[in-house]
Every structure is written in C-alpha cells, then in structure tokens.
C-alpha cells in the first residue's frame, strides 16, 4: 500500500471517530423542541396571536361606556364699548375676560342595531384566525426541521457508504500493487486502482462539505449558533400505515389553511351584519357633571359660578346616504360568496396535493423493499468479486463495476427510505397532524 495514502485514510478515520465520540447526538424530538422554542417565525406568529387575544374585549367592541374628563380655561383682553338698555354708554380699554370650565362626562351607546355584538364576535374570530396562523407556522417550521434533520441522517449514511468504498478502493490498490510486484499484473492496473481511490476521496470530501452545510442550515432553523456541532441518529423509521381516507378526513377537520378560509367566511358574515346594523337607529345616552367660573371686567355681572349635572339621549338614524347602504350590503354579500369559493378552492387544492403526495408515498414505500433487495444482491456480488480479484481471475474494470454497483445500491436504498420519510412528513403536514 502507498504509505501516504495509508496515512491519509488513517488520519481521516481517526479524526471522524474522535469527533463522533465528542459530538452531541441530536434527536429529531430535541430538534423539534428547540425549533418550537427558538424559531423566529413561530415566535412572531405567537406574538401576533397575543395581539388578537388582547383585542377580544367588550370595550374594543364598543359595548362599554366612555368617560371623558374636560378642562377649559379661556382668557381674553379686549377694548369694549357697551350701550345699555337705558341709553347709557360704558367703555373700557384692555378689559379682561376669563372663562373656566371643567368636569367629567359619560357617553354610552346603548343601541346601535346590534353592531357591537357582531364586532365582539368578529374579534373572537380574528383570535381564531391568529390561532390558525400560529398552527400553520408551527407545522411549516416543524416540517422544515424534520426534512433537514432526516436529510442529515441520509447524508450521514452516505458518508458511511463512502467510507466503505474508500476501504474497498484502498484494498484494491494493495491487491494491484502486490500482483504487480510478483509479475501477475501490469503497472496500468495499479495506476487505475489509484485513480479510482483518488476519485472516491474526492467524493468523500464533497459529501463532507454538503454534510457540514446542512448542519449549518439546521442550526439556523433552530435559531441557535450555526457553529454548534452535533451528530444525528443513524436510522430513519418510516410510518408505513398511513391510510388515504383517514388523511382526507383530517385535512378537512384540521388543516390550518382550510380552517383560516372557514374563519374568513365567518368574518365576512359578521362584516355584513355590522353593515346591516346601520339601517337601525343609534341611541347614545350621556351624562356629566361640570363646573364653570366666569370673570369679566365689564358687564352687568363681573363674575359668575355654576356647577351641576347634565344628561340626555341622542338618537340618530340614517335616512338617506346616496344609496351607499344598499351598495355596501351588496358588496358584503359578494365577499361572503367569494369566501365560500375560496373554501371550495382550498379544499380541492389540498385534497389534490394529498392525493399526489399519497401516490408518491406508496411508490416510495415499495421502493424501500426493492432497493433493499438490490443492496443485498450487490453486496453478495461484491464479496464474490473481491475474492475473484484477489486470485486474479477478473479484471480491474469488473472489480470497479461491482464496487460501484454496491455503493450505488446502498445510496439508492438510503435515498428511498429518505424519500419515503419526506412523503410521510408531507402527508401529515397536509393533515395538520405532524406527529413525531
């Protein structure tokens, strides 16, 4: 064996074994937990929901009275001339006049055509819409985290496969070199073996680069330091018992996008109810207690004081507004119709996505079994090929073909499992039930 190649392989293996021991093993459950706690999109959606929750109140809907305190202090300096009823005339320059008023008043809308009740219900629906938005943000984030996590798993499996092919290629170089020394192989066989080994080393370096970049991406999704190093589990478990009719039922009951469309329809209905309320009279009751003090340098009285209650009721009714009321009600009905169309469209789109994803899911499940059998066959073929190459009864080309067939079969098997897992995640996300 070439000593430099041996040292390189030994260094790589020792380095990665040491890192594997030192690295934290991050499970998918831990990754999801970190995402739910730290992810920026989830945190912003949660804050938006808090805003919606805070807005749900009778006061926001206009059900409670409004109390206002007032204070007014008006001062004037004027040149005045007064002619009194008896014909006398009085005048004064720079006459001062002061008017001070202060008090508190209460206004309460006691009837507005039930608009306030519709508004209160609308605030509750907006809170539900915020809940649906938060759930969608959670589903999207968890789905992305799981997809990236399992991508790392299958990349880690590919690294293991490439490590195996490096060992085989290194063994091949050793066989070719030994056979060349004893005169049973040409220099060309040794050179071909070394070229293939270098090719495998290059593939390993590229895969390590991709693996490291995907780690950075996952750390970003978890909203933590992108330099944190970790390992992932070595196995992908696929749920092979998903049933299409059950998923379709869950989509219509739990999918947050569809729930949002249903809530939007209810909001449109409540908007129309508030518009219709404008046909009814509005009754506002008011009361207050006021203090007044007036002082004047000229006049029949130089000062006056007052205090006391005031109360009353204001009734207003829209008699004619240029037919805007009719137009607004027609617009409201059209908006409800559009909301119903949006529900139908969303339902059809989701069921279509579900049907396509389920077909992909069943195909990937069947490919797991097929690729597993191919891997077993390729492994047996490689073992036979190595024995034959060792005794010199097959060519280097046949050896390399068997080697690549085995490695490609392993990679295809890992990829089939990964793709099946992606299909499972997609189906559960559409169903609004992305359990681990």
From TrEMBL:
InterPro entries: OMP_efflux (IPR003423), TolC-like (IPR051906). Belongs to the outer membrane factor (OMF) (TC 1.B.17) family. Its main location: membrane. Residues 1-22 form the signal peptide. It comes from Cerina litoralis. Keywords: Cell outer membrane, Membrane, Signal, Transmembrane, Transmembrane beta strand, Transport. It is found in: Cell outer membrane. GO terms for molecular function: efflux transmembrane transporter activity; porin activity. Pfam families: OEP (PF02321). This is TolC family protein. One of its GO terms (cellular component) is cell outer membrane. It comes from the Bacteria.
């Amino acid at each position: 064996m070439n000593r430099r190649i041996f040292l390189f392989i030994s260094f790589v293996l020792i380095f990665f074994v040491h890192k594997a021991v030192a690295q934290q093993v991050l499970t998918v459950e831990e990754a999801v937990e970190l995402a739910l706690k730290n992810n920026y999109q989830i945190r912003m959606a949660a804050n938006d929901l808090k805003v919606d929750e805070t807005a749900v109140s009778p006061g926001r809907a206009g059900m409670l009275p409004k109390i206002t305190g007032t204070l007014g202090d008006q001062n004037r300096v004027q040149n005045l001339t007064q002619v009194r009823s008896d014909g006398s005339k009085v005048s004064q320059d720079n006459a001062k006049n002061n008017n001070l008023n202060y008090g508190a008043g209460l206004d309460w809308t006691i009837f507005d055509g039930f608009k306030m009740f519709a508004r209160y219900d609308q605030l509750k629906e907006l809170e539900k819409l915020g809940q649906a938005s938060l759930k969608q943000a959670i589903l999207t984030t968890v789905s992305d985290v799981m997809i990236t996590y399992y991508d790392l798993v299958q990349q880690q499996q590919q690294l293991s496969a490439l490590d195996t092919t490096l060992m085989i290629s290194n063994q091949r170089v050793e066989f070719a070199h030994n056979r060349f020394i004893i005169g049973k192989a040409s220099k060309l066989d040794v050179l071909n073996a070394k070229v293939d080994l270098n090719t495998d080393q290059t593939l390993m370096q590229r895969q390590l680069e991709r693996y490291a970049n995907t780690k950075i991406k996952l750390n970003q999704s978890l909203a933590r330091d992108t330099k944190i190093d970790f390992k992932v589990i070595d196995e992908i478990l696929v749920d092979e018992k998903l049933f299409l009719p059950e998923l379709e039922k869950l989509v219509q009951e739990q999918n947050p996008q569809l729930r949002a469309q249903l809530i939007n329809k209810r909001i449109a209905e409540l908007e129309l109810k508030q518009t219709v309320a404008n046909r009814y009279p509005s009754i506002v009751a008011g009361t207050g207690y006021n203090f007044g003090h007036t002082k004047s340098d000229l006049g029949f009285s130089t000062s006056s004081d007052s205090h006391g209650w005031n109360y009353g009721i204001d009734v207003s009714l829209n008699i004619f507004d240029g037919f805007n009321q009719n137009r607004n009600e027609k617009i409201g009905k059209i908006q409800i119709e559009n909301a119903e169309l949006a529900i139908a469209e969303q339902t059809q789109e989701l069921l279509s996505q579900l049907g396509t994803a389920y077909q992909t899911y069943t195909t990937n499940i069947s490919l797991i079994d097929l690729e597993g059998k191919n891997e077993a066959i390729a492994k047996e073929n490689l073992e036979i090929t190595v024995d034959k190459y060792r005794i010199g009864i097959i060519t280097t080309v046949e050896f390399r073909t068997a080697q690549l067939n085995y490695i490609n079969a392993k990679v295809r098997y890992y990829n089939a499992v990964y793709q099946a897992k992606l299909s499972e995640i997609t189906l559960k996300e559409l169903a609004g039930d992305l359990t681990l």
